[in-house]
């Protein structure tokens, strides 16, 4: 696992939001998209569903659709336009490899 | 069926709350139109002024960004019915009847009707397919800017910017002002491009945009960033993530720069998906190397009642978009019987004068910053369709097997049928077909698009059904 891909400009006064990513705890801030929360904690976002390897977002404006992750209950979320909520348990496909979706 | 009949009818539905959509809403309020503004984002501003209300005071983002705060304030003051977080995934039109807009708000589909629909979809970055562009650590320059403006985060390691155009300069200046490190800029504009631009210099000077442009160039040069000029090809390499970028210049020089983050940018192109799904006619714009909708003087498309304003109608920038948005509303107000012809033309005259002045400057910029990597010879192994992972070689193979157009490529390969609906492969597929067949891109055309224009989960329909029942 590579290090965090992005860093925050300033520690803000926003409340912390606890989520998990593939079971590991990640501390997001209120108002973070899932993209921001995940990429300030680690180097990649998800695993491509056709076995082409890991991805880490691309356009970040809801156009390329290359950042879908899912919740443990199966709901799919677009990481660049979905806000982190406390208790979200995000799965990136890493645990199931090519058959994740 | 009752829910269909009961959907409220507005005079005007404005899709998008960027520069064009916000100004259109202000104009609509001034003309007394019953308007609704539908926008995917949680707050007004579009892409260029993303998060403007929260971070409008951030000086490091520069004057062109700060300008958006006034537009957003005027929008908030004027708008009566603004629905952020709302996706318009289809518009049904019928002659002499209000259009029906299909929405997704939160996790539920909905609908409304409107006598006129003004689409202000803005632009998306031109896809720049290069070897390795699907690796983690390959992004668009716009994506870095989005993270900076929306989330106030910057790359944690030095970044390489590859491509050309004003947005690349601007993002470099903004990132540096926020303390991000830029390892190098791989500049792809050909050095001879200025020769093609010079004939358009008078229009550029008259447009006034040169002031901002010169200031930006000066700020960029002051950063002292390493710039490799005349780059003709790049390749992003790494095992499971970007680790380096290799480049080759037109003069034959080559090199490699170690980096975990490469941001690509060769200008923006109109976001045409919704307009195409509605059936609006599009044409090839050779100067901008992109398709755009065919529009009348008041933003009218080929579909009755559907208007387009802003960069979605052809790239002209955030100073032009508000003017085009207001003109489209004046045209709609006249068509709906709210303005007489002399009233419409009187109100429009100063707007059109300003818009024409700005548009005169565009040809210079288009010719100075032509796409290069996005138009260069593409190796067979490069992924063209990021969703379905279809390579350039596969597209060429399908053309050789008889697929003559983008829609046959879809049927052969699923290329363009993934969740992005062709947004990031469409220009490349059209180009590859044109090259293989030896015909112009205008003749090849684009993917035919169908609703929904973005993914809508079935649960959103189920949720709406429960409500009606």
Question: Can you walk through the features of this model?
Answer:
- The complex is a heterodimer of chains A (101) and B (469).
- With 101 residues, chain A is mainly beta.
- Chain A has one domain (16-91): Roll (Ubiquitin-like (UB roll)), CATH 3.10.20.
- Chain A has one helix at 34-39, and strands spanning 6-8, 16-21, 24-29, 46-47, 54-55, 68-71, 76-78, 89-91.
- Chain A has a 5-stranded mixed sheet.
- In chain A, a hairpin with a 4-residue loop joins strand 6 (68-71) and strand 7 (76-78).
- The relative contact order of chain A is 0.24.
- The model of chain A is unreliable at 97-101 (pLDDT under 50).
- Chain B has 469 residues and is an alpha/beta fold.
- Chain B is built from 18 helices and 22 strands.
- Chain B has helices spanning 2-6, 19-30, 52-55, 63-78, 141-151, 166-177, 193-197, 201-207, 210-222, 273-278, 320-335, 341-360, 362-368, 392-400, 406-413, 426-437, 441-444, 458-468, and strands at 9-15, 35-38, 82-83, 86-94, 97-105, 108-119, 123-125, 138-140, 153-155, 159-164, 182-187, 227-228, 231-237, 244-249, 254-258, 261-266, 268-270, 282-285, 290-293, 306-308, 383-385, 390-391.
- In chain B, strands 1, 2, 3, 4, 5, 6 and 20 form a 7-stranded mixed sheet that branches. A 5-stranded parallel sheet of chain B has the order 8-16-10-11-12.
- In chain B, strand 21 and strand 22 form a beta hairpin.
- Chain B is globular.
